[in-house]
TrEMBL record:
(6S)-NADPHX binds at residues 58-62, 152, 252, 301, 349, 416. Binds 1 potassium ion per subunit. This is Bifunctional NAD(P)H-hydrate repair enzyme. The keyword Transmembrane helix does not apply. Residues 10-210 form the YjeF N-terminal domain.
Length: 474
């Protein structure tokens, strides 16, 4: 599991760890990890030009000590001070190692190979001052190819929320972080500013509490996956029912069935528009009609009958996935007629979540973590906010973020496949929170697998699910 913590959690853990260490030991660990990451990126130090952008806190200290290490290895290291009070010991170390120190935002005569963003870390306020933006532009102009390495977090993003409320922030190619991931490394839009995140172990783990946000890794997914035993039969593995697609969107019914029929349950039933049913049977001869199910997927590509389909599924006293058109017919909290709670997974994209919360889409996109949490609480259901790093929020406040995807997955019908797949996982016995997060992981991994770096369509994503599962289990 990849764990991400808040600033306060990190500071408390750091305090506990430092109590047993000599002063400055943690910064040395951080700086050494940072310097080694830079050395790997530059494939050596000798003759390489590195510029440090240095703020007034310990984040700048990390950059200065790492710069000293790089200078001792033969790199030409320049520190640009963006503060009146840089980390004194760090500055002395850099100078002693032969590094040069400058102030001001003037452009260098020659661009460096790599810029280290040591402007602010977890102590930073969101946004960057104008002079900082100018210094950044002068040393790593957009499109220049200068590699940008952020120390701990890209300066200017909001560390605990993943928001980027001020547009001014660093956009890094690589972020080198310490001790644990921070929320901003996982949650968009901040996660997009991090580039590749590398974690340096500084010994913090024993002092860390339960994470604020986590991300499943392949081994976690493998451990959670329902799988058959020698005693299994098709009913014991679970039956998923799909109420999706319509005369207007027949393909969505087919794609939801394709996601459900990826072999993770014993049987798939399709209930809905007769013309869609005929096409489902042609494409998936193993799919059957009306009967008992252990979970429903409702709403993908639905029409004005989606409300009735939702009511019928709710009446069945089994867990359900509520997608697309069916989301419009939901009441908060999600309840059966009679008022009992229903285990449910809602799968909105940002526009649909905005409608569920009665806010603007832009607000959801800007504050994905809080929006998903708020909806999970209000609807008393697991909410999967779809995006490049989909957010899965539990009504009790827990959150998982999915990082297995590829931008090529942003393609029509991909959401229908996901809804069917999560329905199958619910029918297979997973709790809604696990079904949603395992489903999002498999879906993203299937897209990545099918894409191989190139374009994919939703049908190919569904077809790649068994291959991804096979890889996981063997
Ligand atoms: N907490 C930990 O476990 C560790 C922390 N370390 C480093 O220490 C960092 C935290 O250091 P600090 O607490 O000193 O805080 P930061 O260095 O993140 O920032 C605080 C300083 O920046 C100024 N500042 C805040 N927002 C600003 C903005 N938007 N523009 C310009 N200046 C701004 C503040 O006035 C203050 O001087 C971490 O991110 C990490 O890099 C590491 O050295 C080792 C371990
Ligand atoms: N930029 C992106 N990178 C990775 N995955 C994405 C991106 N944008 C969207 N996705 C994923 O693609 C799918 C799109 O689903 P959705 O918006 O419901 O489309 P549709 O309704 O056409 O099926 C979701 O699983 C979402 O997480
Ligand atoms: K930084």
């Amino acid at each position: 599991m990849r764990a991400a913590h808040t600033e306060a959690q990190v500071r408390a853990a750091e305090e506990a760890l430092m109590a047993g260490l000599p002063p400055g030991a943690l910064m040395q660990r951080a700086a050494s990890g940072l310097a080694h990451a830079v050395l790997a990126l530059l494939d050596g130090a000798y003759g390489r030009r590195v510029t440090l952008l240095v703020g007034g806190g310990d984040n700048g200290g990390d950059a200065l000590f790492a710069g000293a290490l790089l200078a001792r290895r033969g790199a030409a290291v320049d520190a640009v001070l963006l503060t009146e009070s840089p980390h004194e010991a760090g500055l002395a170390a850099l100078r002693a190692a032969g590094g040069r120190v400058r102030r001001g935002t003037a452009a260098p005569r020659e661009l460096p190979d790599l810029v280290v963003d040591g402007i602010v870390g977890i102590g930073g306020r969101p946004g960057l001052r104008d002079d900082t933006v100018a210094a950044l532009e002068a040393h790593a102009p957009a499109g220049s190819g200068v590699t940008v390495v952020a120390v701990d977090v890209p300066s200017g993003v909001e560390v605990d929320t993943g928001r980027t409320p001020e547009d001014a922030h660093v956009r890094a190619d690589v972020t080198v972080t310490f001790g644990t991931h921070k929320v901003a490394h996982l949650v968009d839009p901040a996660a997009r500013a991090c580039g590749v995140v590398q974690l340096v172990d500084i010994g913090l783990a024993p002092h860390l509490p339960a994470p604020a946000v986590e991300a499943l890794q392949a081994a976690d997914v493998a451990a959670l996956l329902p799988r058959p035993t020698p005693a299994s039969h098709k009913y014991s593995r679970g039956v998923v029912g799909v109420r999706a697609g319509s005369g207007r969107y027949p393909g969505a019914g087919l794609l939801a069935v394709a996601g459900a029929a990826s072999g993770l349950v014993g049987m798939v039933r399709y209930v809905g528009d007769p013309t869609v049913l005929d096409r489902v049977r042609e494409a998936h001869p193993e799919v059957v009609g009306v009967g008992r199910v252990q979970a429903w997927t409702v709403g993908s590509g639905g029409d004005n009958r989606a409300g009735a389909a939702l009511r019928a599924a709710l009446a069945d006293e089994v867990p359900l996935v509520v997608d697309a058109e069916a989301l419009r017919h939901l009441d908060a909290p999600v309840r059966r007629e009679g008022g009992e709670p229903v285990p449910a997974v809602l799968t909105p994209h940002a526009g649909e979540l905005a409608a569920l919360l009665d806010v603007e889409r832009a607000e959801v996109e800007a504050d994905q973590l809080a929006s998903a949490r708020r909806a999970a609480e209000r609807y008393d259901a697991v909410v999967l906010l779809k995006g490049s790093h989909s957010v899965v929020a539990h009504p009790d406040g827990r959150v998982r973020v999915n990082t297995s995807s590829t931008p090529w997955l942003a393609t029509a019908g991909a959401g229908d496949v996901l809804a069917g797949l999560i329905g199958a996982l619910l029918a297979g016995g997973l709790a809604p929170y696990d079904a949603a997060s395992v489903g999002a992981w498999l879906h993203g991994a299937a897209a990545t697998y099918a894409s191989q770096g190139g374009p994919v369509v939703a049908t190919q994503v569904a077809a790649a699910i068994p291959e991804v599962v096979r890889d996981l289990l063997t």
